[in-house]
From TrEMBL:
It comes from Paenibacillus sambharensis. Pfam families: Calx-beta. Residues 1-19 form the signal peptide. This is Calx-beta domain-containing protein. One of its GO terms (cellular component) is membrane. GO terms for biological process: cell communication; metal ion transport. Keywords: Calcium, Ion transport, Repeat, Signal, Transport.
């Protein structure tokens, strides 16, 4: 396999999903304790007299001077298994041993398009390393499969901690992140097939998304993704094709060429903060475009449409890449000039600490006559962050459907959804968020629902 390099962590992925939701990235990892509360590797003896064990030979390190500081290992997939050196500094004493535990954990992506990354999930690897005055060096081997599949970057966390009390593991060299850059053929593709019934983006004429999952820091959203080699500059043309919607009447095109920056990893290069390829979660623009309003704009024409509106974006004319199995995405436009029900705020937040209810406001666009719609709280099957991030109806909130009736002239109704603090089970900490969604169904004749409501609670 020829040697190539790929892109950044999170996906080597370019997902064009959306930024219509409020900017919110919800951490999925357990919170990192600050220096005051972090479990010290050793307190029984002073660090100036204790032996020290460290991860060593980083390919890039910030020196832990900043909040986002970290140590990094990098390699290309063709390099094979990675052997990480662990060193003992100082002496233990004749006949004495020091034992250090280690753990290697692969980042597992979540979200609607997590499977698009293409690589197999690897279970955590754990073990111990034993040091003596005669054995100062040990190594951790991370198995890497050199295949011929175009994939996202693979990301691993490597950590060590003392198991015996006669050794110190300094916080600054206890953890590192390993990036495995894919070096197979570069491929640009949509994450899934789409059509009018199952669109890539389902837009409302006011420019909002009708359905928008929450995005966590491990999510890969539906959109356009780039896999494999990123060592060369890549361009792909974006062609807009009308399908009942007309360009410059119903929508405008804003981006006609996709040109991400190139990335590569070279072990012989001494990287700096400005030019290193370990830009964790820096997806936007360079690696992931998740704002539909950068691709296109929706024109609110303030007239009732007689036919469903839609258009397609097609990938064409690839340079230094190839187009994958799915070369187009379908966008639908929901007319908001017909009588409709919608949420005053599509994205809602609740907390078990300060309130036992979630207040929801449902609107209707036309106050003429009586009308009704049913509000149903449901499990969030859209965000797909994992089972432990999904709030459960009947356990953490009341999932009973509520029929909302509007009298003549009424355009706004407020209802409350009970939250159950005693049933809440935090994923990792009491500040971690969980999700559920709100659906509007069974609208009166002539009405339609415009949005799905997204709720996060902690």
């Amino acid at each position: 396999m020829k040697r190539k390099a790929a892109l950044l962590l999170v996906t080597a992925a370019i997902t064009i999903a959306t930024a219509i939701q409020p900017a919110r990235i919800l951490a999925q990892d357990p919170p990192v304790p600050d220096e005051a509360t972090a479990a010290a590797p050793v307190t029984a003896q002073a660090e100036d007299t204790a032996a020290v064990v460290r991860l060593t030979d980083f390919d890039y390190s910030t020196g832990w001077k900043d909040e986002d500081a970290a140590n990094y290992y990098g390699q290309n997939e063709e390099d094979g298994d990675r052997r990480i050196q662990v060193m003992l500094e100082g002496r233990l004493g004749s006949g004495k041993e020091a034992v250090v535990s280690y753990k290697v954990e692969q980042l597992h992506f979540v979200g609607p398009a997590a499977s698009a990354c293409g690589y197999a999930q690897v279970p955590p690897q754990e073990g111990t390393l034993t040091f003596t005055d005669e054995q100062h060096q040990q190594e951790i081997t991370v198995p890497i499969t050199n295949d011929e599949v175009s994939e996202c970057i693979e990301y691993y966390t490597v950590s060590i901690s003392p198991k015996t009390d006669n050794v110190v593991v300094p916080h600054q060299s206890a953890t590192a992140e390993l990036y495995v850059f894919d070096d197979d053929e570069s491929v640009v593709t949509f994450t899934r097939k789409s059509n009018r019934a199952n669109p890539w983006f389902d837009m409302v004429e006011d420019g909002q998304l009708a359905v928008r999952p929450w995005q966590t820091d491990r999510s890969i959203m539906d959109g356009i993704i780039i896999l494999g080699d990123r060592s060369k500059p890549v361009t792909v043309d974006l062609k807009y094709i009308d399908c009942c919607a007309k360009r410059n009447e119903d929508y405008t095109s804003r981006m006609t060429k996709f040109s991400p920056h190139k990335f590569s990893f070279d072990r012989d290069v001494e990287y700096t903060r400005a030019d290193n390829p370990f830009t964790k979660f820096g997806w936007n623009n360079t690696h992931m475009l998740y704002e539909p309003n950068r691709l296109f704009g929706i024109i609110d024409d303030e007239k009732v449409e007689l036919k469903p509106e839609g258009f397609k974006i097609v990938l064409s004319n690839p340079v230094n890449t190839s187009i994958g199995a799915v070369d187009s995405g379908y966008i639908t436009i929901r007319d908001n000039d017909r009588p409709s029900f919608y949420f005053k705020s599509q994205y809602m937040y609740g907390t078990y600490q300060f309130s036992k209810t979630l207040t929801v406001t449902v609107m209707r666009s036309d106050g003429e006559g009586e009308a009704s719609v049913t509000l149903t709280p449901k499990e969030d099957h859209l965000t797909q962050a994992g089972e432990h991030w999904m709030a459960k109806p009947g356990v953490e909130y009341d999932g009973t459907p509520q029929k909302i009736r509007f009298a003549p002239g009424e355009t706004q109704k407020t209802v409350e959804i009970p939250l159950y603090p005693n049933g809440y089970v935090a994923p990792f900490s009491e500040m971690a968020s969980k999700y559920f969604l709100l659906e509007l169904k069974g609208a009166s004749k002539g009405y339609r629902a415009l949005h799905t409501g997204m709720v996060t609670v902690h």
